[in-house]
Amino acid sequence: MPYKKLSKTLQLLKTVYSYDNTDYSKKYFGEIGYKTDCLSPDDADLLRQHNLQPNNFQTLSHDELLGAFLKLRESTSLTWQSCSRFFIKGLSGDLPRYRQTLMSFHFMSGLEAHAFAPSQRHLNCDVCGLPKQSVFDRTHALYTYYLGHSWNETPTNFLPELEEASTFEPPEVTKEQIARLSALLRAINDASEDETPGQLEKRIASLKLLPKADKYKRYGMLQTLAVTGVLPSDPETDGQPARSDIVHPLAGWRGRMGVDYEVASKVFPNLAD
Ligand SMILES: [Zn+2]
């Protein structure tokens, strides 16, 4: 989508999905919708054109979701290489929407056909982490990615994310954008022995390496590096109880682990350019 239209689209979604714009009359299996009377017919049309109409609720069982992922994996034009470029571009602040795709693609790549295996503690599957049943507003899920967030906690949302990203032109990355990723990895690798992920986030913030990012968006980008193994993680290392906003695998990183440059060169072949 051309950048100008994208920023208009984001502006409209911000208006609809503001916290005080909920609409309890638009409930869908317990999920609450949002008022849309702030949209002019032209606005609504623009969102429809981009398949971003608000309150686009869907219900999918574990098997339906898994089936949809496996089917998409066969048909998508996304590759490891294009997803790594999406990430580099998103990191640079040029297109924050692109930050999520690498993590979603990593998840999809690891899936295999299986039956739902209920875990002891959660209603999620022990094999893949997908819930038994998901109810979600597709557009709201995408909206958080347009804001520049990336998360690993809700893999259900990776499906609309990857479906949409499959329609994007594979991006070219510039030398400056690659240099920004290199600088970030260098800074991470410079960590002191016992640096925690929370301290790392603060240090990265003070270095001003990541434009268009707040604390949670920085966690998202660092989490993608952890999920892909660029930041090593010890599953035994406890998350920081007082900082429950950091989850594994990022929670299992400590400064002494630095950056795994061997993995980094595989995930980001552009780094060698
Ligand atoms: Zn499963």
Automatic annotation (TrEMBL):
It comes from the Bacteria. This is Uncharacterized protein. It comes from Hyphomonas beringensis. The lineage of its organism: Bacteria, Pseudomonadati, Pseudomonadota, Alphaproteobacteria, Hyphomonadales.
